[in-house]
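wait is this the right file?? whatever heres the structure
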């Protein structure tokens, strides 16, 4: 018999009496650069796949998130003529199309009612958090920022919104936003811009993986999980990789605080029609709430926004 540490449920231990394990971790010789921007809708769209890739294959690489500078400011000329975007209001329809296609909901009405004027302010805050508190908390900030923008229609370039997001991370919002507005914020941002150029990143999202011989692959745009795994195999010059087991849903939701159905489906290979029963089986009903936005189900911890 065995008691499961994750669920607390006791039952039969299974037929396998002994398991050979290897605690030797592979040396991380690969650097992965994720070139992105807080207002990049296609970056929001790839979050389900990117999360699974990092969770299962992150032991093979060091990940670096790089700000690319999508929008310095609006001007009289076209911003993205290929998608018919000349003014902020033009973004809304494009964003909604991306959200519907990816099933990562995007409302977009903020760009009509109270548009983001520049992606640089939240990018500078990201860099200050990264410098002072590390990559993990900076990545949490980026995730919260995208939730506020795409789902909850908040203008993430406004000081008050940035401050509140930083507060939710347990950090001093005013202090960090103040520092981001100093020359150091723009200096760090320009360093990322230079790095993105040196990596040959010309679009968002871009994933660049480089090995110890300074050779690598560049993957532009949202791609299936298999594309990123194949890219990793190429830079490692390895046929077989050993992915980690997906973490328990309870631990992922506790860390992220908000997950969309699509994110859970991708992480655990669950059909959309089976998501409710899967979540009910994996989580205690006291630990989460199920909500709906733009026709998509999302799950939050009981203390999260979206209650």
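ok assuming it is, sequence goes like this
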């Amino acid at each position: 018999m065995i008691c499961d540490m994750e669920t607390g449920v006791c039952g039969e231990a299974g037929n396998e009496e002994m398991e050979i394990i290897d605690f030797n971790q592979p040396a991380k010789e690969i650097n992965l650069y994720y070139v992105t921007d807080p207002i990049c809708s296609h970056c929001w769209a790839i979050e389900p796949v990117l999360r699974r890739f990092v969770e299962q294959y992150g032991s093979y690489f060091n990940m670096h998130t790089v700000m690319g500078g999508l929008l310095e400011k609006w001007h009289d000329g076209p911003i993205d003529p290929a998608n018919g975007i000349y003014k902020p209001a033009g973004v809304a329809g494009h964003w909604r199309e991306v959200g519907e296609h990816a099933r990562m909901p995007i409302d977009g009405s903020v760009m009509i009612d109270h548009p983001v004027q520049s992606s640089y302010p939240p990018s500078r805050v990201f860099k200050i958090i990264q410098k002072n508190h590390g990559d993990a908390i900076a990545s949490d900030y980026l995730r919260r920022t995208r939730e506020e923008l795409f789902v909850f229609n908040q203008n993430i370039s406004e000081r008050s919104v940035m401050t509140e997001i930083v507060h939710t991370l347990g950090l001093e919002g005013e202090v960090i936003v103040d520092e981001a507005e100093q020359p150091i914020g723009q200096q760090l941002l320009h360093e990322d811009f230079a790095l993105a150029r040196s990596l040959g990143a010309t679009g968002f999202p871009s994933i660049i993986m480089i090995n110890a011989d300074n050779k690598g692959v560049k993957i532009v745009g949202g791609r299936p999980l298999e594309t990123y795994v194949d890219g990793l195999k190429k830079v490692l010059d390895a046929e077989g990789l050993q992915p980690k087991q997906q973490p328990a849903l309870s631990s992922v939701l506790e860390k992220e605080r908000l997950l969309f159905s699509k994110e859970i489906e991708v992480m655990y290979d669950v059909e959309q029609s089976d998501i409710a029963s899967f979540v009910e089986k994996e989580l205690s009903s006291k630990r989460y709430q199920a909500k709906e936005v733009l026709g998509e189900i999302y799950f939050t911890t009981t203390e999260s926004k979206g209650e």
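The radius of gyration is 20 Å. so i think its the right one actually
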